[in-house]
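Today's session is about reading a structure prediction critically. Students often jump straight to the picture, but the first step is always the sequence itself: look for stretches that repeat, for charged clusters, for runs of hydrophobic residues. Only then move on to the predicted structure, which in these notes is written as discrete structure tokens rather than atom positions. Here is the chain we will use throughout the hour.
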Amino acid sequence: MSVPPPSRSQPELRVTLGRGAYRRPLRIGLAALAVGLLVSLSTRTGDGAAWAPGEARRVVTIWGGGGALIALAAALWAFVIFRNRLVVTIGEKGLVLRRARHQVVVPGGAVRAVGIVWPVADPVWTVWLDTEAAPDVAAVAKMDGGAIALHRSRSLPSGWLPSVRTAATETLGAAWRVLDDEGGEVEEPRPDALSRADRLLVDGTGRYRDQGGGGLVAIACGRLARRGPGPARFRRNPDRGRRTIVLRDPHAGRLLAFKKTSRLAGGGRMRVFDADGRHIGTINRLREPSFHAAGGTLLGTTRRHGDRHVVTGVDGRESASLRTRSGADDGRMWLERSRSAPDLLRTLTLALPMVVRLARQSS
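Below is the predicted structure for this chain, in token form.
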């Protein structure tokens, strides 16, 4: 008689704050030390007559000592964040929430769903549960009805989202839920929804909608050239630099990243990366941009004809076009991509609404 092998239990996942949670106190502390050091050194350089001995000592005491005190306060701030951090462990039997000396165990049967709440650029990791089965949860996490907000994405380590989703659905056996900024349920898009869409409507907040099906397929997260009023702004993406715009699906999955070059590096150029961070292409110039593969091969060029920006491939055929409007509707753009265009060129033209907005702001 054969004996069945023992079943293997799923490994637990432990998640807590990442480096982003300590970024602000670290920056404040380093800036205070740098300013205090520079001002103190200025009393010892240059013409000695510029600083009297008594005045120099006073400047060093105020600026150097003040910078050290601010740096010490920033270090204490970081320690308080570390001391009071929330540690979440996901296992087969449920969730374990620990903050400082408090620990609460939420049974797996009490967890109704795990997921995120918009904004997509910085979603909030949220758990929906039966509060009667875990009455002590309020001691370690903020509760809102039957939901508890655990962490914001910007404070967690990179790559936390797919790991948490896998642990929640496979290890814990809970449902995965995503809510938008109005509290509505967000359906999971198809993996190829953006790549297959031929006609897209892009609004002023960077939301890409498939005009064929009407569904939301992507959201641009990041900053444009400068901040200011008006519809031509995307939601801020706190996890990225100011020169990076990340295209995410409605469930906050990373699709593409567009990194603008700095003015010192020449400006007017945008590098495109796929979901895995591989460089797949480059867009040169803001006005009438050209599209190139990662190796530099030309794929297409852009010419403006009235309210249309037409992308022509190297074969001379129209590969994509972007239609804009002036006046009250200047935040909305209509992007059409030809099915006969190469896949890489179709992907790169997704940046055309961003490039046109950047060109408008720089004019």
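Discussion point for the tutorial: The CA atoms of residues 232 and 357 lie 7 Å apart.
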